[in-house]
């Protein structure tokens, strides 16, 4: 008999979420409004330490409205890390703006703050400042916000934090999602917590919060008839899904602990293998350990990344290459890219291992033995 499939980062839901979901159902708040939605927002805002949280249908929707809040319009440019999931750049395109891609630093796999500062300096002297900079907290580890904010503040450019992968992480004692004009969380099925699909925009700025709520609910004016002064979106999260989110947030620290245990296990069990190096953890913060990722040096390891992927697949284990950078994607072929060697190398050699919070001891051992035999 073949072993059951091990997934990369499957949902981890329990009786807690089930009970909250059924209570919401029975209350008849089956709409994108309701007490669970309000409670979920308050809970996350308190945890992250921001004044406002607006629950939305996805992290992508939250990115879209965060860029609207930053004033991004047709013809603008926005600095975006190349090494990210496509949603970060796609949200820029929704507004008719153009991403300018920047390389990562090998020290954390996040956007290189020096490249951001350089690009802003060059664009300031050319009179072509971007409307915003988006930083992404890659694989659950925060970008380096001290130099990033310093550079953005110097030129008066808004920073947006794409913390879709990093809920529960922190940077110098401050929670992921709290940096810049607005932060973005995702509750997609593979993220550290899930509502089955959902996201959130976080901000301390009352004007941004009001505008985001307004735009996310079809930009309806507060009058009895249907009055619209701008084009709105239908982006509010369902109250039912928010109920699931409430349960997930209660279990966040337990789920982070489980992922950290997996990360430590992999590091201890594979760290001695030649040609294997794990994603570096910068000393400025604490990650949420969303995914454990490593680089394969084929010569030293005696196997390429793709050979290891194939071996894991044969053992019915789902693993993934690291993100394919945006500047190498056909859809973004024509965009400007600064640097690129680091992110191209991460894509060529990077491997993400099963890291779900419900992974068992037995599962982890299966992953390790498949890799060691490779
Ligand atoms: C998952 C993810 C998103 C998109 O979130 P959705 O909720 O799936 O729309 C955006 N950015 C990054 C970096 C992500 O990993």
Describe the protein in words.
α1 (15-27) runs antiparallel to α8, α3 (59-69) packs across α4 and α5 runs parallel beside α6. This protein has helices at residues 15-27, 35-48, 59-69, 86-94, 113-125, 145-155, 206-216, 239-250, 252-270, 298-301, 305-314, 341-349, 361-373, and strands spanning 52-56, 77-81, 98-102, 132-136, 158-162, 170-171, 174-175, 182-186, 199-203, 276-278, 285-286, 292-296, 320-321, 337-338, 350-353. The longest helix is centred in the C-terminal third of the chain and has 19 residues, at 252-270. Strands 1-9-8-5-4-2-3-14 form an 8-stranded mixed β-sheet, with helices on both faces. It has a 4-stranded antiparallel β-sheet with strand order 10-12-15-13. Strands 7-6-11 form a 3-stranded antiparallel β-sheet, with no helix packed on it. The model has no long low-confidence stretch (mean pLDDT 97). It folds into 2 domains: 15-250, 3-Layer(aba) Sandwich (Aspartate Aminotransferase, domain 2); 252-372, Aspartate Aminotransferase, domain 1. It is an alpha/beta fold and 374 residues long. Helix content is 40%, strand content 15%. The radius of gyration is 21 Å and the shape is globular. The two termini are 22 Å apart. Bound molecules: pyridoxal-5'-phosphate (PLP). Pyridoxal-5'-phosphate is lined by residues 58-60, 84-85, 87-88, 136, 162, 164-165, 186, 188, 199. Residues 58-60, 84-85, 87-88, 136, 162, 164-165, 186, 188, 199 line the site of pyridoxal-5'-phosphate.
């Amino acid at each position: 008999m073949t072993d059951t499939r091990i997934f990369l980062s499957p949902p981890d839901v329990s009786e807690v979420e089930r009970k909250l979901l059924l209570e919401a159902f029975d209350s008849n708040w089956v709409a994108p409004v309701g007490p669970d939605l309000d409670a979920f927002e308050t809970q996350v805002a308190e945890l992250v330490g921001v004044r406002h949280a607006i629950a939305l249908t996805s992290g992508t929707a939250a990115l879209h409205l965060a860029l609207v809040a930053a004033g991004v319009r047709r013809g603008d440019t926005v600095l975006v890390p190349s090494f990210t999931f496509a949603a970060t750049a796609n949200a820029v395109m929704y507004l008719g703006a153009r991403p300018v891609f920047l390389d990562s630093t090998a020290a954390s796999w996040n956007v290189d703050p020096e490249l951001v500062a350089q690009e802003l300096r060059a664009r300031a002297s050319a009179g072509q400042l971007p409307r915003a900079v988006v930083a992404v907290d890659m694989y659950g580890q925060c970008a380096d916000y001290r130099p990033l904010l310093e550079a953005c503040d110097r030129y008066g450019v808004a920073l947006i934090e794409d913390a879709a992968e990093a809920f529960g992480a922190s940077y110098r004692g401050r929670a992921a999602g709290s940096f810049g004009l607005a932060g973005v969380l995702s509750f997609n099925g593979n993220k550290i917590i899930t509502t089955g699909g959902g996201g959130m925009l976080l901000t301390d700025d009352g004007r941004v919060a009001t505008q985001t709520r307004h735009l996310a609910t079809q930009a309806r004016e507060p009058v009895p008839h249907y009055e619209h002064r701008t084009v709105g979106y239908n982006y509010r999260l369902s109250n039912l899904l928010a109920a699931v989110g409430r349960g997930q947030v209660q279990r966040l620290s337990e789920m982070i602990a489980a992922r950290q245990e997996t990360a430590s296990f992999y590091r201890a069990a594979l760290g001695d293998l030649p040609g294997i190096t794990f994603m570096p953890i910068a000393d400025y913060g604490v990650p949420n350990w969303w995914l454990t990722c490593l680089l394969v040096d084929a010569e030293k390891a005696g196997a390429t990344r793709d050979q290891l992927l194939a071996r894991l697949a044969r053992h019915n284990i789902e693993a993934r290459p690291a993100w394919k950078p945006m500047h190498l994607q056909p859809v973004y072929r024509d965009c400007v890219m600064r640097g690129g060697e680091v992110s191209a190398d991460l894509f060529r050699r990077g491997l993400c291992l099963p890291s779900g919070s419900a992974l068992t001891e037995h599962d982890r051992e299966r992953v390790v033995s498949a890799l060691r035999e490779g």
